[in-house]
Amino acid sequence: MTVSFRLIVVCFFTLFSASAHAAPIRLKDLVEFDGVRSNELVGYGLVVGLNGTGDGLRNSPFTEEIMVNILERLGVNVTGEQFRPKNVAAVLVTATLPPFARAGSPIDVTVSAIGDADSLLGGTLIMTPLNAADGDIYAVAQGTIIAGGVAAEGEAASVVQGVPTAGTIPSGATVEREVDFDFSALTSVRLALRTADFTTAARIEAAINQNFGRHVATMVDSGTVHLNIEAMHMPSPAHALGRIENIMVEPERRARVVVDQRSGTIVMGEDVRISRVAVSQGNLTLRIQETPLVSQPNPFSPGETVVVPRTNAGIEEEPGIGLAVVPEGTSLSQVIAGLNALGVAPRDMIDILKSIKASGALHAEFVVR
Question: How much is the pLDDT for 249?
């Protein structure tokens, strides 16, 4: 048995860094245009043609119900009949209706088993209507499924690679109904920032007004910029957005540190700063090993078998980082570079960063996943 203790105390090391700025980004990559959005679709359908890998109808009665409904719609009366096919499976079909999709446009769909089917490989989705949140049908899906995995089974063993119970149908659905939205009638459009920030919103406002040479954009709040289409004197809102979406804007980033404890990954922004602080790190390992000894009496002699406990205990201390000074305003990237130079492991860095944040010296949002 091994028990590990980690001790983190204070030390100093000297590091310096310079502030860096974000590169200009296209406006279309920073904002969402009001009204230009996708819609989620979902449907419940049946997959046929499976090679004995479908639902067990005893455990999935809903599969039998939808199969009966489909057959009756096709003119086949199966009322009261007992049938237990193994090549059908009930599935949920999902898709995303892109903005401005027109009737007849193809869209991709994802098919996922909801019963106890072993695999959807090689199956065919029967015509399935796809509904939006308002309950109306916007597309119809049908086609051969491309499964994302494979499964094989023998008498004494089985193997599964990937996820054979889910797959896709490229261009497997056809848009039957368009979203009722007259984009050309808009007189104004709101730009919604994907990451709300007052500085970035102000820069977007200034960049658009400078491009047109007059006041056509107004910052409403940290996440919204109002665009006056009429003041832009463009033929249509589509022409207006086509002109501004490639304007380059330098976004302002919030200081943030994201760490993943499972993989030991550390991601940080260049604007993260550390106040004057001291850190020292070392590992203390306590090892306890049990090796019991069994004592037995001689043959045909009175006595009992006794287990004699034997324990070996020891303490090992691994060398930690040395002393160094962190002056006021040092960037975290330079601190990480210094820790790397000292040979500190990523997981030890995460523990050090947690302690720096707890001390109040790390001036950034700290996210642990």
Answer: 92
